[in-house]
């Protein structure tokens, strides 16, 4: 599996990470680039057999250790679950998932009846994100809602 981070430079010797769904705490001892990602050696594990159960597992960092993003950018976990409102104040639903496409992401909004609304994550549509209020204000371009 390739890297699933925008910040591979953070995975350096001395960094504490949590491996697998069990979140086994490990320290990175060494790292080197590899054709399909990174090869990491964890402290206290010297042989391949020592890490057999750790291969191809997700590696996590603490949420409060992640890098700050530039103004107006958000981590996906920060915005999934936001209440999505039209600019007129109509509740459209909850941001339930994010599709990563080649051009721009697409936000999937589900209403109370489990209907989906697909919103392109572009400045023309996403007007405001308020993490404190847990809301997202959007402008609905013609055709986004389908036939009404």
SSE map:
Elements: E1 16-19, E2 24-34, E3 37-42, E4 59-60, H1 76-79, E5 83-86, E6 91-99, E7 106-110, E8 116-120, E9 126-130, E10 135-138
**Count of β-strands:** 10
The number of distinct helices, counting runs of at least 4 residues, comes to 1
CATH topology of the largest domain: SH3 type barrels
Largest sheet: 6 strands, mixed
Beta-strand residue fraction: 35-45%
Cα-to-Cα separation, first versus last residue: 43 Å
Structural class, from helix and strand content?
mainly beta
CA gyration radius, whole angstroms: 20 Å
What quaternary form is this?
single chain
The pLDDT mean sits at 84
* Regions with little confidence, pLDDT below 50 for 5+ residues: none
Describe this structure in words.
- The protein has 148 residues and is mostly beta strands.
- The chain folds into 2 domains: 8-65, no CATH class; 76-138, PRC-barrel domain (SH3 type barrels, Roll).
- Helices cover 3% and strands 37% of the residues.
- It is built from 1 helix and 10 strands.
- It has a 6-stranded mixed sheet, with no helix packed on it. A 4-stranded antiparallel sheet has the order 3-2-1-4, with no helix packed on it.
Give me a quick take on this structure.
The chain is mainly β and 148 residues long.
């Amino acid at each position: 599996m390739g890297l699933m981070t925008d910040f591979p430079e953070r995975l350096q010797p001395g960094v504490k990470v949590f491996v697998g769904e069990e979140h086994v705490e490990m320290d990175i001892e060494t790292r080197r680039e590899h054709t399909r990602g990174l090869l990491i050696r964890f402290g206290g594990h010297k042989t391949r057999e020592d890490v057999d159960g750790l291969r191809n597992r997700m590696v996590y960092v603490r949420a409060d250790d992640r890098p700050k993003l530039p103004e107006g950018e958000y981590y996906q976990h920060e915005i999934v679950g936001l209440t999505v409102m039209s600019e007129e104040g109509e509740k459209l639903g909850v941001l339930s998932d994010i599709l990563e496409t080649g051009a721009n992401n697409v936000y999937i909004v589900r209403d109370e009846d489990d209907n989906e609304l697909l919103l392109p994550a572009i400045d023309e549509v996403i007007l405001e994100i308020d993490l404190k209020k847990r809301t997202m204000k959007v402008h609905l371009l013609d055709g986004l809602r389908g036939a009404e």
